[in-house]
Every structure is written in structure tokens, then in C-alpha cells.
Design brief:
The protein has 588 residues and is of the alpha/beta class. It contains 16 helices and 20 strands.
Length: 588
């Protein structure tokens, strides 16, 4: 009797089925269509007012939505369709459309006439770096990418070239390859206002001789021409508003002083691990219990080696008018008074200034002088930047800066991670224009906000996660699992003041490209004005780390009530073409 081999082949079927509308959607359709099979524009208007919170929604707006849905779903026969009503499927597709039913406004709607100090400003750190802080290339391309994302503050580190007759942009005393300053400036000019009309601030970290400073001044004026904002006086008593400065370029740096060559620089050139941010190194080993009499402010990169130059200093150096022409272009003066941290946070009556703190210095300031920081930021500009040991261009938690009123919480935009997702989320507010009005309580000078005080719940947010879709269009069929459809679950939570922070998750939905969860979560909020809704989708993996399926982050103060479609983004913050969630938001 012979032996035989048998080969059994299995064919995997990736069957994609369109999910039925969630029960809430079906019930709302039945209610507002009054039991019929079609919803009229008038009935849709009633739904928009009652459920979606569109106060005063007009018939014409509802008719426009109906027309858009008919064109979108039945574009090939739209002209042949005589009805101007929605079926249940049309209604569901409208609610699940990220274009027609987004979760937040996409237009500027806040008052833009307050001083700049009244706004959080979308801020980049070392904006020219393509990768890590030690050895990546310097380029104009990351600057363009940041501006296209809506960033309004660009940082450039200015160093003499090897011949000391021109200016390069690079991360000093590292292996980063330089890029010409003129290339960066031309890129800023070309892309500054493609995403937002509001002012772009260029913070210069200046390591130049007076003759090169004069060269920079000429280059700035030649490149930007009438776009360059030149202040009438040396110091503002109150900063202009974003509205006043539309389509303008603003320069912020320390006022130049007579150039004193630092002989120790050459001795440090070959120390590749030495950060240009001398104060960051200084804060690396700060004592656990700082003594106020020995406090140092940890100020910005270019400020660390010099005391602040007073506005009244006319810079009467032996170099004459050269540095004066450079100084004339500085609209927001960076600087610090001599002394400790508390001294640096003093508010001066007749001038405003920019102060920079490393993330570690801010933590110290928040611990020791929290209300002083809040008071300082009501009039002046506070910039916070990553500590010097973040060589991989990672970022820190931005909320501590925002809680204390810091306008410029500077991030490495070329990186990615959860902290950067929060930054993206914050600046989706106010139409993504790069300026977000600070909450009134942060600006109240009669009762200074104390972030450490015990807070009571102001409102409660209810979030219902209905379903998700689009992964089968944006991912390969074997991306999540070789042998079966994905097992998705959603994490939902709050980023904000410590008392509000929490994360929750749905059950996993097995073997489904269009998962339906229909789970509800409740979030009590003490400071809803600064709270961000965090959403992540993951695919459960029994043997390895769960796969990433998308994320988004949204300012809770801007969430629209009702049933909304949320587009999801990848790890770098780039929007997927199709992946989205259907959710409901309700405030009580």
C-alpha cells in the first residue's frame, strides 16, 4: 500500500461589508423624517437645530447640505434625480462626512484685536533641522513644512560661515550641516501666509559680529520689504494685535551690544555633545530644592551669556550705525534683568519683553513662582523650549506652559509623538490660524490664576464612540493581520490640568474593517478651556505590541455638539485620506 501526501490550501477572504447606521442615527432619522423614508430640507433643519446645536439654521443651509449629499453620493445621476430629500443612507453618509460635518469650526472666530501677549502662538524650535539635534541636516524645507501646518514662530540660529564673511543657519557646536540664511528667509517670505494671514515671528539666536548683524539687517529688509514690521519706538509699552500685524514679519531677538568675541568658543568647537543652549546644560543638574538666592532664569540661548540690554541703551559702540540698523528691526526684545528667577518675572510698567525658559526652568518657576509666571505672561511674552538632552528631537508636555500663560511653547516640529499630537490639537482651534486666545481666567489681573489651586468641576463632557471606517482604503489588507481582519479598539481621554487627565477605552471589535462600538464615556472637566480630547485607535495583537490605527486631538472648547465625523491622522500628524470615526459630543 503506497503513501500519499495531501496539500490543503486555504484562501483568505477579506470581505468588506458596509456597516449599518448606528441605532441613534436610525432613530433620529425616523423621528425627524416623521416615520417616512425620506428627510426633507425642513426636517433636516430641525435636526440641525435640535441635535447638532445649529442655532438659527436656515432652510437654505439645509437645502445646500441636501444638494451636496446628492451630488456626492449620486453624482453620476444627480441631474436625473427629481427628489431633493435624503434617504437614511444619505443621512448617515452626511453625518459621516468629515468635510460636511466636522467636529470643530474651520474658520477664525476669536477676537484678534487684543495684544499678542493675549494669545497662545504656534511655535517651532530649531525650525531648520530635518532630524535630530546633533547630526541632521539643516534645511529650509522643515521651515516650509511648519509654515504650511500653521506655525507662526520660526527659530533661526545665526552663525558666521567658515570665512566669517557671511551668515549660515545651523545648530552650533554640533555636526549639523549649515544652510544659507538667505535660503531660509526666502522660504519664509514665500510660504509665511499660505495657511494664515496672521504675523510670523522670527526669533533669531544671534552669534554674529556687528558687521554680520548689519548684513543680516540689510538682508531682512531686502527680502521682506514692506512685509517686515519695523517698530516706531525701541520698546512697546503694549504689544500690537494679530489683526494689526496681518501679513507682517516680526523680528524678535536680544538687542545687539558691542561685540565681544568669546575666546572659549574655539576651545569647544570639537565638543560635539555641547548644546548651544548653555542654560539647558545648566539646568541639567539642577538641585531638587532650589535656593532662591542662587536661582538662574535659564533664559534663551542667545541671552545666557549676556545681561539684558535696556531699551534706553542706544548701543553707542565703536561700531557705530552698523548694529543700530540691526537693532532698529527688533520688534520684540528678548532679554532678562540681572538677578534670580523672581526678578526676571517682574512686570515693568513702560516696556514689554520676551523671556525664554527651558522646560526644566519652567517646571521650577511653576513650582516656586506659579502666580508670578501667570502675571508676567499677561503683558510679556514667555517662550519655553525643550531641554538640551532631547537629542532625538522629542518634545515635552505643553500643558504646563499653557496653564501658566506661556505664549510660545516651542516644539521640535520635525519629530512626532503624543506631546506633538497635543500641540497639533491645540492649534486646530480658531480655524488653525496659529493664534489661540488665552482663556479669560489666565488674563485676569485682579485674581491671578493659580494652577496649583484645588478646582471644582465646571462642566461634563459625554462622548459616544459609534463606529469607524476607511482603514480598508488607506491600508493594505495584510497591514494589521496576515490571517484575519483587524481587531480595532478606541482609546478616548482628556489632556489638560492634572485633575482632568484620564484615558479610557472601548472593547475591541474582532475581525471587522468597519468596527461598530457604540460605547459612551463621561469626563468631568475642571478647566475645559485648556482641555484637549485625545483619541487613538489601535489594533489588538495577542503576541506583539498593538498596532497603531490613527489618532486625533481636538480642543474641547471648540467641539461642536451632536453627531460628528472625525478624520484621523498618522503618527506624524498627517491626515489619512479615508480613516475616520463617527462620534457624539454632549455637554452638561
Amino acid at each position: 500500500m503506497g503513501s500519499y501526501r495531501m496539500c490543503v490550501c486555504f484562501t483568505r477572504k477579506f470581505r468588506i461589508t458596509e456597516a449599518e447606521p448606528p441605532s441613534d442615527v436610525t432613530e433620529y432619522f425616523a423621528k425627524y423624517a416623521e416615520g417616512g423614508t425620506h428627510m426633507t430640507a425642513e426636517q433636516l433643519r430641525n435636526f440641525l437645530e435640535d441635535v447638532q446645536g445649529y442655532g438659527g439654521a436656515s432652510i437654505s443651509e439645509a437645502e445646500q447640505i441636501v444638494e451636496q449629499m446628492l451630488q456626492k453620493r449620486h453624482h453620476h445621476i444627480a441631474k436625473l434625480i427629481t427628489r431633493r430629500t435624503l434617504t437614511l443612507e444619505d443621512f448617515h453618509h452626511y453625518l459621516f462626512s468629515t468635510d460636511l460635518n466636522p467636529p470643530i469650526e474651520n474658520q477664525v472666530h476669536q477676537d484678534m484685536n487684543a495684544p499678542l501677549s493675549h494669545y497662545y502662538i504656534y511655535t517651532g524650535h530649531n525650525s531648520y533641522l530635518t532630524g535630530n539635534q546633533l547630526s541632521s541636516d539643516c534645511s529650509h524645507v522643515p521651515i516650509i513644512k511648519a509654515l504650511k501646518r500653521g506655525v507662526r514662530v520660526v527659530e533661526l540660529d545665526l552663525w558666521p560661515n567658515s570665512a566669517k564673511d557671511d551668515v549660515n543657519v545651523l545648530h552650533g557646536r554640533t555636526l549639523t550641516t549649515p544652510v544659507e540664511l538667505v535660503k531660509c528667509l526666502k522660504s519664509i517670505k514665500e510660504h509665511a501666509f499660505t495657511e494664515s494671514p496672521y504675523p510670523v515671528v522670527i526669533t533669531l539666536e544671534d552669534h554674529l559680529t556687528p558687521d554680520l548683524q548689519a548684513k543680516v539687517a540689510k538682508l531682512l529688509m531686502k527680502t521682506f520689504k514692506e512685509m517686515l514690521f519695523i517698530p516706531d519706538s525701541e520698546c512697546f509699552k503694549k504689544l500690537p494685535s494679530p489683526e494689526d500685524l496681518k501679513y507682517r514679519i516680526i523680528i524678535s531677538t536680544k538687542p545687539p551690544k558691542e561685540y565681544l568675541e568669546d575666546k572659549s568658543v574655539n576651545d569647544k568647537e570639537d565638543n560635539l555633545h555641547k548644546r548651544k543652549d548653555s542654560e539647558e546644560d545648566e539646568w541639567g543638574n539642577e538641585p531638587a530644592e532650589p535656593k532662591e538666592e542662587h536661582e538662574d532664569v535659564g533664559t534663551s540661548e542667545s541671552e545666557a551669556s549676556e545681561l539684558n540690554q535696556d531699551c534706553e541703551d542706544n548701543n553707542n559702540s565703536s561700531h557705530g550705525a552698523e548694529p543700530a540698523s540691526y537693532k532698529r528691526l527688533i520688534a520684540i526684545h528678548a532679554g532678562k534683568p540681572s538677578g534670580g528667577l523672581k526678578e526676571a518675572l517682574k512686570v515693568e510698567v513702560d516696556r514689554v519683553r520676551r523671556l525664554s525658559l527651558s522646560e526644566q526652568a519652567l517646571e521650577k518657576a511653576a513650582e516656586c513662582h506659579g502666580t508670578d509666571v501667570v502675571r508676567f505672561t499677561q503683558k510679556n511674552i514667555l517662550r519655553v523650549y525643550p531641554k538640551g538632552t532631547r537629542f532625538n528631537s522629542s518634545n515635552y508636555k505643553p500643558l504646563i506652559g499653557w496653564m501658566h500663560g506661556a505664549q510660545m511653547v516651542a516644539f521640535n516640529m520635525q519629530g512626532y509623538g503624543k506631546s506633538l499630537w497635543l500641540m497639533h490639537g491645540m492649534f486646530r482651534a480658531n480655524g488653525g490660524c496659529g493664534y489661540v486666545k488665552k482663556p479669560d481666567f489666565v488674563m485676569n489681573d485682579e485674581q491671578i490664576f493659580d494652577p496649583k489651586a484645588k478646582l471644582t468641576v465646571k462642566k461634563t463632557l459625554k462622548v459616544k464612540v459609534y463606529m469607524g471606517d476607511g482603514w480598508h482604503l488607506d491600508f493594505k489588507q495584510t497591514h494589521f493581520d496576515l490571517y484575519s481582519p483587524p481587531d480595532f479598539y478606541t482609546r478616548v481621554g482628556i489632556a489638560g490640568v492634572p485633575a482632568d487627565e484620564v484615558m479610557k477605552k472601548t472593547k475591541k471589535k474582532e475581525d471587522d474593517w468597519t468596527p461598530v462600538w457604540e460605547e459612551e464615556f463621561t469626563f468631568p472637566l475642571r478647566v475645559p478651556e485648556l482641555a484637549l480630547l485625545r483619541i487613538e485607535v489601535h489594533e489588538y495583537d495577542m503576541t506583539e505590541k498593538d498596532d497603531f490605527g490613527g489618532q486625533t486631538c481636538l480642543p474641547i472648547s471648540e467641539l461642536k455638539q451632536g453627531i460628528r465625523a472625525l478624520p484621523l491622522f498618522n503618527r506624524k500628524g498627517e491626515k489619512y485620506n479615508s480613516v475616520r470615526l463617527l462620534m457624539r459630543f454632549e455637554f452638561t
